[in-house]
Q: What sequence folds into this?
């Protein structure tokens, strides 16, 4: 559904304001591991369904374990509340793979908010949930890499295309984003902390199917 970005924000607020026990992690050795899927570990990740259920499971890929996501006209995500000190580890790094992108959708519209793969970073609004923000890094089907746009439903949700189309489909791609720099660029302000991470493979709006695989997700002191 097009309004799922609103659900991500609202769900984030409920969790961050007492819906789950807060997990505070100290970044030692210059990195903070958020998703250790290569070890088969889903500890701390909570599933939230918005329209049907995307199937998430740890699988062997031939090069090690990863998190597989299969969506068939569904939208559900995995969410992890974890406090990230961006002054120590500002860079979000991960690897992912898709079988194909979802081409032919107007992803800037309410009707086109489907992606083969996306990774969210969530910033809590504290006592003011309307101040909660999300960055959604997506494998786009139509927008060029580097394009960003606001979610059609929620002003505080920014979507960024970090992969696009099918040129890289079927192989692992590594990604790295400096969250502090992105926040300065997208919001025009400074940020010292992120409060949660989520992943989602969703196809409910288009009624299509998609498969994706997510490697380990971590925050590091340097990007690249």
A:
């Amino acid at each position: 559904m097009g309004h799922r970005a609103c659900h991500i924000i609202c769900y984030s607020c409920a969790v961050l304001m007492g819906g789950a026990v807060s997990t505070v992690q100290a970044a030692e050795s210059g990195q903070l591991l958020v998703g250790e899927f290569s070890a088969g570990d889903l500890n701390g990740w909570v599933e939230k369904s918005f329209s049907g259920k995307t199937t998430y499971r740890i699988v062997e890929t031939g090069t090690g374990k990863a998190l597989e996501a299969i969506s068939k006209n569904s939208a559900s995500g995995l969410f992890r509340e974890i406090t990230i000190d961006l002054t120590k580890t500002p860079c979000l790094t991960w690897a992912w793979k898709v079988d194909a992108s979802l081409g032919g959708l107007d992803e800037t519209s309410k009707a086109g908010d489907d992606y083969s793969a996306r990774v969210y970073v969530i910033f809590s609004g504290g006592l003011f949930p309307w101040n909660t923000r999300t960055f959604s890094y997506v494998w786009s089907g139509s927008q060029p890499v580097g394009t960003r746009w606001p979610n059609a439903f929620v002003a505080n949700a920014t979507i960024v295309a970090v992969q696009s189309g099918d040129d890289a489909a079927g192989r692992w791609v590594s990604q790295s984003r400096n969250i502090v720099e992105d926040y300065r660029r997208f919001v025009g302000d400074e940020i010292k902390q992120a409060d949660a991470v989520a992943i989602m493979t969703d196809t409910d709006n288009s009624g299509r199917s998609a498969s994706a695989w997510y490697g380990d997700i971590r925050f590091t002191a340097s990007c690249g």
In short: The two ends are 34 Å apart (CA to CA). The first strand starts at residue 31 and ends at 35. Residues 13-24 have pLDDT under 50 and may be disordered. The chain has one domain: 4-220.
